[in-house]
Amino acid sequence: MRSLEVFKRHLKEKRAVKIISGINNFDLTSVASVCRAAQIGLASAVDVAADEQVIKTAKENTKLPVFVSSTQPFSLKKAVKWGADAIEVGNFDALYADGVDFGADEIYEIALETMTLCENDNIFTCVTVPGCISIEEQIKLAKKLELLGVDLIQTEGVKPMMARKDSTSSDLLSIAHMTISNTMEIAKNVKVPVMTASGITPQTAPLAFAAGASAVGVGSAVNKLKTQIAMAQTVRELVGAVNYKEIIKKEQESPINVYSM
Fold first, then answer.
1. pLDDT tens digits for 100-135?
2. Contact 216, 200 (CB under 8 A)
3. 71 and 92 in contact (C-beta within 8 Å)?
């Protein structure tokens, strides 16, 4: 299995690409396709829902590190038992359309409880800073999360835009603009790595890294596609857009290459 240490190295090199299946995606066929596409496309990690069968399916269909997302601390604790390589309080985008809302204090309490429950598990932990709160609140929360000891902070765009299920390319560009702006401000105020998510595409991914991101989290640009081939091609475009083609080539040629199943 591809070690989480490789993902951490990609963070340091500011080229990590995480493909998100969806916090509420329990369709095992869909999860398997997204995970295989991430593998074929040379992503750094995948992200799935906190469900035992979903995690099992992900593990069976990729050698990439598996992040598990939820807003429930006990679900994340169970995810560690079920084989998660990393846990994440986040990927709220899919929840906004259902009317779910989050504030800074609530996210901090969820993160605190999660890290308390998992303090003996030595598990890599990521937390998303809600994009619907002011940038001042985002920065304040990010600083508190850094002091709490999270390993990675994820940013997102504007909730009203993300809640739309019929988002256009223009909508995605607007969302990406906001999450990249949030990334820029947060990255200037914390030392912990920052991952940009929400509306990220092969076209906007380079902008996220230029803004200070160490990683991008990509969901709808991949998981809404109809075929695994289309998904894999988009993942390749995302990874290629980060302009590390020579590094990728070296990893493919390495005798310890683990990209092939």
1. 778 999 999 999 999 999 999 999 999 999 988 999
2. yes
3. yes
Q: How many angstroms separate the CA atoms of 51 and 68, rounded?
A: 9
Residue in the structure block whose two tokens are 């990220």: 200
Mean pLDDT of all residues in 91-95: 71
CA distances from 174 to 20, 101, 132, 196, 201 (A): 20, 20, 14, 14, 12
Listed in sequence order, the residues at least 6 apart from 64 whose beta carbon sits closer than 8 Å to its beta carbon are: 2, 35, 38, 39, 43, 44, 45, 46
Alpha helices in 42-130 (DSSP H): 52-61, 73-81, 93-96, 104-117
Asked if 23 and 94 touch (Cβ cutoff 8 Å), the reply is: yes
Q: Which two tokens stand for residue 181?
A: 């702006």
Q: Which of 45, 50, 44 is nearest to 68 (CA)?
A: 50
Q: What is the DSSP letter of 127?
A: E
What pTM was computed for the model? 0.87
Helices (H), 188-227: 205-210, 220-223
Provide the terminal-to-terminal Cα distance of the chain, rounded to the nearest Å.
10
Helix, strand, coil tally for the chain in percent (to 5) = 50, 15, 35
Give phi and psi for 18, each to the nearest 5. -105, 130
Q: How far apart are CA 163 and CA 125, in angstroms?
A: 25
Match 């560690």 to its residue by tokens.
80
